[in-house]
Amino acid sequence: MIKHVREDIKQIKKMDPAARSTLEILLLYPSIHALFFYRIAHFLHGRRLYFLARFLSQFARWLTGIEIHPGATIGYGLFIDHGMGVVIGETAEIGNYVTMYHQVTLGGTGKDHGKRHPTVEDGAVIGAGAKILGPIVIGENAKVGANSVVLKNVPANCTAVGIPAVIKNCKGDCKDCDKNISHSIPIEA
């Protein structure tokens, strides 16, 4: 858990120019508090202590305004900037060094069984108010614009914006488009 906390702090220092010290981050950043409680709740959830895990996650929600289900899987260096209103569902998977802003939802559509929530791969950035719904994948280093509603996969190194979201720009090797050409195409599953 110490390694996770160190990586989380390191990522906050890298991504937030307002972060002045490690002490400030530890004491004043709700992202760190929510992740601390999540990691304990996730441990309990893995030991089938479901009620205790959910109780702890709901306490963290009350304390921070960030709701992370104890069944979610989260890697190193997640930075939830401003945090309030973030919801991360039970079967969500989040890779390493992901950045999310306030009011982001990684939720289900209500009609899926088993894997019901999104997978967000390493280095992705999710803008404020974005709703990412269903068992879809947000690719490595992809970006989702503020207030976008994403219902289909977003390829690696691409940007998705709008309601419903469409791809506006891809960088690198994207099978859906030419390199570095800005365009609008529907997101394919």
Helix content: 25-40%
Strand order of the largest sheet: 3-6-9-12-14-15-16
Structural class: alpha/beta
Order of helices and strands: HHHHEEEEEEEEEEEEEEEE
CA gyration radius, whole angstroms: 16 Å
Low-confidence stretches: 178-183
Tally of helical segments: 4
The major beta sheet can be summarized as: 7 strands, mixed
Furnish the topology, listing elements before pairings.
Blueprint: H1 2-15, H2 22-28, H3 30-46, H4 50-64, E1 67-68, E2 73-74, E3 79-81, E4 87-88, E5 93-94, E6 99-101, E7 105-107, E8 119-120, E9 125-126, E10 131-133, E11 137-138, E12 143-144, E13 149-150, E14 158-161, E15 166-170, E16 182-186
Parallel strand pairs: 1-4, 2-5, 3-6, 4-7, 5-8, 6-9, 7-10, 8-11, 9-12, 10-13, 12-14
Antiparallel strand pairs: 14-15, 15-16
Helix pairs in contact: 3-4
Give a short synopsis of this structure:
The chain is of the alpha/beta class. Helices cover 28% and strands 23% of the residues.
Q: Which features does this protein show?
A:
189 residues; alpha/beta; seven-stranded mixed sheet; five-stranded parallel sheet; 4 helices; 16 strands; 28% helix; globular
Any overview of this molecule?
This protein is α/β, with parallel strands linked by helices. 28% of the residues lie in helices and 23% in strands. It contains 4 helices and 16 strands. The chain has helices at 2-15, 22-28, 30-46, 50-64, and strands spanning 67-68, 73-74, 79-81, 87-88, 93-94, 99-101, 105-107, 119-120, 125-126, 131-133, 137-138, 143-144, 149-150, 158-161, 166-170, 182-186. The strands form 3 sheets. The chain has a 7-stranded mixed sheet. A 5-stranded parallel sheet has the order 1-4-7-10-13. Strand 14 and strand 15 form a beta hairpin. The chain is globular.
